[in-house]
Write a structure and sequence with these properties.
The chain is an all-alpha fold. The chain has four helices and no strands. The longest helix is centred in the middle third of the chain and has 17 residues. The radius of gyration is 12 Å and the shape is globular.
Length: 92
């Protein structure tokens, strides 16, 4: 079962998602933008929007510097959600 479940709040667990995503980022030296993106979404799910914004911006820089413009565009959309105090829900 996903830690961040898009359609059922019964299954979403923001704090656990933060914990797991932080572990993944720590193991990879905070250098994998996909993991940073996941961590940002987890922070937002847990209501930690400032941290979500900061982490998403880190991911954005890494995506842009590696030429992954499509992923960078996706992050920019999620940043708008975090700036508005909203969590990202895939498929919604």
């Amino acid at each position: 079962m996903d830690i961040i479940c898009p359609n059922n709040s019964v299954f979403r667990d923001g704090p656990k998602a933060v914990h797991l995503a932080q572990r993944a980022c720590k193991i990879t030296g905070y250098k994998v933008p996909e993991f940073l993106d996941t961590l940002a979404a987890a922070y937002a799910e847990a209501g930690r929007f400032h941290e979500a914004q900061t982490t998403a911006q880190q991911a954005l820089k890494l995506f842009e510097s590696s030429g992954k413009e499509t992923l960078a565009k996706d992050i920019k959309g999620r940043l708008q959600l975090y700036n508005a105090g909203q969590a990202f829900r895939e498929g919604s």
